[in-house]
Every structure is written in C-alpha cells, then in structure tokens.
Fold these 3 entries.
Entry 1:
Amino acid sequence: MKKIFLSGLTAGIILFIVSYGGLFIAIQYFPSFFVDYNNPLFNSNGSRDTLFYSHAFIFSFALSWFWERFKSLFKGHFILRGLEFGLVYGIIALVPVMWITFSSLDITVTMVLSWFVYGLCQAAIAGIVFSRMNP
Amino acid sequence: MLSLISATDKAPVMIKWAILKDCTVKVNGSTNINKFSCSIPDYLRSDTLTCSRTGNDVPVALTGRLALPVISFDCGNNMMTNDLRKTLKAKEFPSLNIYFISLDKYPELTNTQESITGIVNIELAGVSKKIEINYRISMDEQKIIHLVGTQTIRFSDFALVPPRKLGGMIRADDKLDVVFRVNFKRISDS
C-alpha cells in the first residue's frame, strides 16, 4: 500500500509539472491551437479549477493501483514496461472515452486527438515512474 | 421617439426622431490566445428617442433606448458565439439595453462628422451602469443622422466574470470595446 501511495504521489507531482507546464508552454507558442476552447462546453467561471489541477494526482493514484494489480504482465526494461503500460491504458481507456466524447460533444477532431496523445504521454510517464519505484 | 427643443432661448423647437432598423452593435475583445469580434448585425425594432433641450442649458437631455437581443450576437464562429451568449447570461437576461440619457451639446448635424460625448445607461445581465460615450455624429444628404458611439467597458462592471478556460490558462481580457451605430431620421417637429 505504501508503495502504491508513494509511487502514485511521485507520479502525480511529476505529471503536475510536466502536464500543466507543457500546457502552459503550448498555449504560449501555439495559441491558435487552443482557440476552440472558447466554447461553452468548457467551464468558464473558475469554479472547477481545483478539480482541474488535481487531475494529475487522481490520474496517478488510480494508475498506481492499476499498476500494482497488473505489473507482473509487463516485462523487460523499466522504460519499456512503462511505455507498454501507457499504451495499454491508452487502448483500453482513452480510445473508448475519446470515441464517445467526440461522438457526443461539439468538439473538433484535433481536440480529441490532442487529448488522446496527452493522456497517452501522461500514462507512459506514470508507467515509467511506477516500474522504477514499484517494480 | 426622439424630440428636440432647439438650441435657441426664445424659439424652442421640438424635433422627433425615429431609430431606423439598420443599426448595429459590435463588441471587440481579446483573450490571451486570440481576439474576437461579435456583433448584432441588424436592429429590427422601430424604437424612438426623445431629445430635449431648454434654452442654452447643457447637456441636452435624451430619453429612449436600444433594446438589443443578446441571443443575436454573432462572433462568426459558433463556439465563440455560444460562449459569449453564455458569458452574458443570454437565457436569464435576453436584452442588452442602452438607455440614452444626455449629450454634452446639441450637434451641428452637418455632413461632416462631429465628435461629442454623452451619457448612456447600459443594462447588461441585470446590472445597470451609467457610462460616458464618445460619439461621432453626422447627417447625410437624405437627412439621415448617423450616430456612432464607442466606449470601453468591462465585464466586471456588470458583475460578469470574463471567461477563463483550462484552469485559467486561457482567459479573456476584462475589457470590451463596444461600438454601436445608430441611424435615425427626423419624423416631426413640435
């Protein structure tokens, strides 16, 4: 349990920095890519900012538990195990979620694809942290 | 109805004015990633204004209003349009009302644009605010008076929160530049 918590916390901190830092930089350098977020589908009054910024930790703790249950299935170098873990998460969770999201909400293909890649990278980074800290 | 008592002390003349239907309102704003421009392209009501001035007193008093349907704002992009309508609480407060209160002086009404200022009361999202407006006013050969009002307002003036997305990483500027063009015509004297 301690390993799940510690590796989850570590992954959460790393993802927080990488994800939101990356997002901040992307908005500065590729602003046109984010114009479609001026859309009433997205919360606009700041009331959910805490939830938004806690996502990295929710994501990491959930994946840390998942890793503990299924880590024996991932073999090889820790980086390879982490990447494979991220890919598995992407296929079983992200693809179906992105599919239903795109089919039901008025958002663009670019937006959905970017979320898929974003989630895939997050899961792969978390996987690498888990395979290193909780092999 | 817009009526005017002339500027002379001894012979005040009341002139009535009707707002024509080809009036527009435009708001220009920006976010940290783009600029936007939204407009109500056609004002379809037949409102009137009343302008009255007694003797040489200034300012000239105005009464009347423009009642603009917020739902008619068009930003040229469905997402932006819907976002602006949501920000302006279009469902709760469907009208943006501009109440004319006064002009700092009676305009010359020639075909040369004249700059004057005036006071209006803007009612937006259930909040009213008295604002000084910069006007350019002229009259063409068809005796149609063209009034262009410009002013910068703030979302926060009307207790509105400028839209912010993704935890505030994308955020709209509090300032909005408002431009309204009103055309009206003299309909009677009294």
Entry 2:
Amino acid sequence: MQLHINPGDELPIYRQIMRQITDAIAGGLLPAGAQLPSHRDLAEQLVIAPLTVKKAYDELERQGLIMTQRGKGTFVSERLPDVDPEQRRERLRDSAQRLLSQAALSGVSLTEVVNLLEEIQKGMGR
Amino acid sequence: MKTLEFEDVHYAYQEGADVLQGVSFSLDEGEVAGLLGKNGAGKTTLMRIAMGIVGAQKGSARIFGLDPRKDAVEMKRRVGYVSEDQALPEFLTVGEVIRLHRRLFPTWDEPLERRLRERFTLSPKVKIKTLSKGQARQVALLCAVAHRPEVLLLDEPAGGLDPAVRREFLETSVRLLNETGTTILFSSHYMTDVERMAGRIVMIHEGRLLIDNALDDLRENYSLALIPQEGADRRRLSDLKGCLSVRVQGGALHAIFSCEPERCRALLAGELEIHNAFCTPIALEDMFIELVEGRS
C-alpha cells in the first residue's frame, strides 16, 4: 500500500494517514493480519516527523483497527471493531453531505448517485 | 531536565530597538519545533543566543542545562547548527572542511559522513569557493549532523535552495530523528516543510511569543472566520474571547480564533449576532499571514 500526504491540506498529516489506512482496510486493500510499515520506515518514506506517524498509529490502535505486537510489528486487526451504528452514520454524514451538494451542483440526480455508489462498490470487490 | 530552554530572553542591537522582549519556551528531548516569524522578528538572534554567538542582555538560554557562553566547548560537541549565511573557509577543499570537523567531534560518525557525501555527490577535492550555494549548504549540513548531535538548530537552512535539495535536508533530519532522537529547532519560510517536520509551532511577533502550540492543535482547534464587513465591528470582534487577530481583506473581516470552527460560529452568533460568518480550519501558511497582518 502506498500512502501519500499533502502538508498544506485542510486535514492534519496524522489524520491524512489515518484516513488512508482506514480506507485501505475498508476497501480490502489491507486485509486482516496484513503488516503495516514500522512508523520509522513510514516516516522516512513520507518524509515527515516519526512522531506524527506514531500518533496516527496510536489513534488507529485505539480505534481497534490495527494492533502492535511488540518486537514483531504493526498489523491490521483480525477482528475489526463493531462500531455503534449511530456513530457509523454520523461519521458518514459529512462525506455524504459533501457528495450530495456536489451532485446537486453538477445536476446529477440522487438515483444516479446511488448507481455510482453501487458501481464503485462492485469495483472494490466486496 | 529540558533539552533546550529559553528563559525571559531579551536582546536589543541598540538601546530602544528591542528585538526580543522576554521570550520563554523549552523543548523536550526528541521534540521538533518550527520557529516562525516575519523577517526581523528575532529568529536568527534567538538561535545565535542558543549557540552562544551573542549573549542575551537579560534572561538566558540553556542547552542540556549548560550555559552556551561559559560551557561552550562541551555544549557545541553535542549540538549541530546551520545558519542561513554560514561562511565556510573558502580556500579549503570540501575534504579539508570535513576533516576539520571530524577532528573536533569525538562522536563523529564516519559511515554517516560517507552516506551523506555520496548522497549529496560532494567531491572532497573541490574547493569551497567553487561550490554553488546549494552545495555549500549541503557541506554545512553534513558538518552539522555527522557527529549525531543531540540538538540541531537550523536557521532558515533551505533559503534559496531548490526543492530537491530542500527535500534532502528534510530526509536527513527525519533519519536523524529516527536514529538519534535529536531535538530540532528550525526556522523556515517554507510552511509545507514546517508542517512535515514540526510537532510544535513557536511563533515570535514583535519580540514576544505569539504562539506556542502543538501543530495539530493549531490545525484542529483554531479557525479563521470570514465576516462581511457591513454590520461587523472590528473593535468588538477583537475584544471577543479567543480572538487573536483581525484584519480587513477584500471587503471582509478576517479573524483568527483559538477554537474550532463550530464553536467559533456559535460565539459570533451568540455574542455579536453575526450569523453570516464563514468559519473554517486553517492551514499554517494562512494562519501565519493572518496573525502577522492582523496584529501589525
């Protein structure tokens, strides 16, 4: 998996890392048990402060998405955490809102948006 | 004990023209702080005080608890310093300059020196005076880090360098952080470089500390409010709690608040009946401009 960060982005760098790893896990690109690069390696790869990567990893670990085994490395959790459905909806709301306003601006109907989502999901292979 | 410490540092080049008027902050081991401020804000002076090149007129700087003027030799062995206008002896060759440094530092790491020399493609036989600005800065960086300093002071190290050389500077710093746990204080006008490296932002304005926060805190708990000029009173705005700066720009008031956008919106609506403000998180570069312009 390749990560890419943009220092001037609205999101702080550690959140960009978190988001990309979360997306990769959700999209199946990073399956359960897959190993992540060490935070030092990732810091060198992305040319950012090692503490920033550590912060992203710590936060993902707190959310139960990844786990660190001492001396072995960091891995995607075997069992992904059950998120409270209400919380799950809240997390999606922002992105959904942005998507819908963009659709409205470009004159794309709700049905077309739903079709597009289904098409993308098929492409993700799940 | 703090690794690097400034306490109530005052400095004036001449009487009445104070550059630093009581600057205090300190860095823990392994911390990376970006030092920001306009040209002439006193960033270089602060670093020169830390290196003992000049002495504070009031207050003090300490590195590892040592006095940079009295314990200069012991301190310098453990510190690396690159300044914007670093002058290397022009009549020497690259190899001679490196050898000179190697002898001065007991902790000199020859494999690291070799790695950097190859990386920077520096030929030892070339005379310093024939180097380009970028190459000369690379020699200075090599000499500043090859003894694996515990503290690294970088004063505008990337000024005038092309993006590739700047990136090499950063890569070298990341490796040093990984391998040595070095504490780094660096000043730069390249905000993306600062965002990549710094965990903490220290900003000096008009001789005083204006900001001393974690970078992520600035990104997540500060906002920019854009308010149409009519119906908004600049004075009342700047008196609001958490308002750091206000300026007029393109028919709108720009204000920086030390709270997240949602609370900022609520504050403006609740206190000043302003309901048409656009509040947004803000990148470091914009924050820098807003603060500097909104407080002069």
Entry 3:
Amino acid sequence: MYKKLEDYLKEIGHYLVVKEGRDEILSEIKSHILEKTAQEFGKVSEETLEKIIANYGNPKKVAGQYLEGEEIISPFFKKYLFLYTGILFVFHLGFTLLSFIFGWSIVIFPFFYIPRMENLWALCYLPMALVYDFGLVCLFFYLVTQAKIEIRLPWPKIKWRLPKAPEKKWIQPKIIFLVLMLAGFSIIVYAYLKYHTLFFMSLDFRNQAESLLNPEASRWYSLFLITIIACEIIVYGLRFFTQSEWIPLLKNAFYLVLVWIIMNNPIEDALIRLQSPDLEFVLYVVERAGIFIVVVFGIVAAIDFFQSLWRISRKHWRSR
Amino acid sequence: MKDEGIKFESEMNRGFLQVLVLVLLEKSMYGYMMLRHLEKLGYMVEENTLYPLLRRLEKRGLIESEWDVGQDRPKKYYVISKEGKTVQEELLKIWKEQNEILNKLMEANKNV
C-alpha cells in the first residue's frame, strides 16, 4: 500500500464528518487518485502519487466539499445564537445577584444550580455562566438542526443597541460645575470631620447623628469615599488644562488599587448597629449589597482603565 | 475585477455542472472518465467539485451508482436514474428558455 496516499485519505477521513458513506467516499477518492496517476505517469509510485495528491487539494477543503447540508447548527439559527445566549445570561445574572445578595442557593432543575457564593467567587462564576448559557443554546440549536424540525423562533425586538467602542468625546469642563463639586465636597468633608462618618443611621442632624458602622469601619470607608470624590474633582479640574488620556488611566489604576485594598482588608463587625437577632437578615443583605457596590465600582474602573489603555496604544501605533 | 469574474463563473458553473452531469450520465461513466470527457470538450472541472456533486445527486435519487471490482482497480460507475431523467428534461427546458431570453435581450441591446 502507498503510505502517502493512505496518510492523505486518513487526513480527509478525519475531517469527513458525514452520517453515512464515509468509507465509500474515501474509496472513490483513492480509486480516482490511483487511476489518474496511472493514466498521467504510466506507473504508480510514491513520487508520482505525491504530485497527483498535491493537485487534489487540501484534505480539509476536500472533506468540506462533502459537508454541504451536514451542518452541526443550521446557518438559519446564527442570528438567534447570540441573542438567545444574551437573554439567558440576563436571567442567569439576575439569579446570581439574588443568590449573592440574599445568600441563597438557587436550583432550576435541570438547567441552573447557583450555589451560595462568597464575595469574589460570585464574580468568577459569571464568565462560567456565560459559557454555560452559550453551550445550552448551542445544544438546543444542534438538536433542532439534527432533527430537521421546521420551527419559527420568536425574535424579540429590543430597542436598545450595545454601544460601539466609541472615540472618547471630551466634554469641555465648566467652572460652575467645578464650583458646585467643590462646595459639595466641602460639605462632605465637614460632615466627616464633625461626625467621623459618612454612613449615617438616619439623617436627623439636630441630635448627634449616629453612624451605621463601627468607628474603625466608619473612618476607613468614609475616607475611601472622600478619596474617590476628591479624585473625581481633581480629574475634572485637570481637564481645564489637558485632555490627555493618561489622566483617566492613572485615575482608574488608582481606583483599582483602592478596591483591592478594601477587598483585602475586611473589617470585622463593621455593621455593628445592625447586629441584633431581629436584624440578622437585614445585616446580611446590607453587607452583601456593600460588597456588590464595591465590586461593580471595581469592574467599571477596570473597563475604563482598559479602554484608556486601548486608546493610548492605538494613538501610539498610529503615530509611528 | 478578475477575482470577481472568477467568483461569478463559479456561481454560474454550480448550476450548469448539475445539468451537464445529468446529460453526461445518459451513458454509464466513472468520475475520472467524466472529467476527461469534459476536458476534451473544453470544460475544466476540479475533481473535488465533481465527486461531492455526484454524491449529492445520488442522495437525491437523480443518479445511481455501482462499483465495478472486476478490473485491476475498483471503479464507481454512475448512470442517470428514471427520476433524474425527468429532472434533466425539465432543467434543459428551463435552460433553453433562459437562453432565448438572453438572446432576445442581447438582440435588443444591439439596436439601442
């Protein structure tokens, strides 16, 4: 037997995913190559076969010609694939948030199992959930395609569109906004200096306003908030002088460091005021919601950071 | 522009080759024989286009096949089926009508 021919047929066979007649197709190709070689060269040898095989074409392409009508998923479903994955993921995301905030395990048999997760585990779970949803939608379309069922699937009309990665439009800063921001900031700093917190149980300032958090947490999280507001005002002020992309990049890098510090230094019994048996559930929800807000803030900062980085590198490469 | 031409040609050939094969297989033939025959007529077809087409036509019942293992190398012979003959006649009729339309249009263009 001729090794080159066998190897060639083996490779075609690897890509030839047909329901029936696979061996027959390979036999026919083999017969054709042998016949053509004999006719054109007068003898069949490894060398002469090699030339004919080279002309027959790339094994993947040859196999591909036989796969018409043998699609794994029908092209008709292409546009549904991502839309349905998106819709499913929205539900998955919603259930994950509920599970995270209320500390539930959610089971929708046999599709979802969302275990009760701690802090960042919930965040790590989401990309996995997206891949799972995509797989589930693919499986559905695979089964429909293979069963050759004629179905008309609903196509929800969604008004909004995802924004394209835009060129950043710089809005000219205005003095009035800067003044208002500074005024607001002064009030916040004054409140902090007077009450040593920005997280109040109630806004009854006639009496001594009580903090929701214990003293350490009050100081720590209030300073976190003040730092962010101060940063925003500085960045806004700097825009009077420069519109460099480096400023948001550095700002968001700083925010990411802040989030990292906050997440890595949890304060025990921060919500001390709510620690009574009656408020156990409220305590749990508030704590979770707090973590969720910090995590979302971190995600937004990360997205902004990478967008700035992308714009800077694009500008850099264009100028080269 | 040349690439565009090749693209259109391959689109046109797709349908034309089906008719051609159905006409050619009035007589029993195997793949390589068909290619050589068409080549002599000045029509070049790639083998990896012809064989998948033969398979599709066979799956649709328009042609039939049989392996001949009596020779030094086994060969798969194809011939048009009864159903294929009906389809072939219809296709030729359509092709003739289309040709007439095209000719009329070209004649009309000459007088513009």
